[in-house]
Amino acid sequence: MAQAMLNVYMDEDLIENMEQTCHDMGFSLSTVFTAFADRVTKEKRIPFDVSIKPDPFYSDANMARLKIAVADAKAGRLTKHDLIEVYDE
Fold first, then answer.
1. What confidence score (pLDDT) does residue 79 get?
2. How confident is the model at residue 85 (pLDDT cuts 50, 70, 90)?
3. Residues 4, 33, 16, 20: what is their CA dihedral angle, to the nearest 10 degrees?
4. Residue 69, Cβ neighbours under 10 Å: how many?
């Protein structure tokens, strides 16, 4: 298999820390990236969880409340409401 070079731009501190971590585990950075690329290619997925916390604005409860408010506004019944505070746990 022919070898090719891949250039990746990352934060310099991140690269240094990753190189040290890979070295501590007995691997080169190139070996780790090759293993990552091989796994992504074979499994057709990122081999770790990648997620974004859902925006509470789009919760079912808030969507229902907004539908009622829109219907009230269209019917000429404007209502006052309190802001709902949402805190991360």
1. 65
2. confident
3. -120
4. 14
Q: Please give the pLDDT value at position 29.
A: 92
Helices (H) and strands (E) in the chain, counts: 3, 0
Distance CA 17, CA 23 (A): 10
d(CA 30, CA 36): 10
Dihedral angle, C-alpha 40, 41, 45, 46, nearest 10 °: 20
Single out the residue of 37, 34, 57 nearest to residue 47, CA to CA. Answer: 37
Give the CA diameter of the chain.
71
Per-residue pLDDT tens over the stretch 1-16: 799 998 989 999 999 9
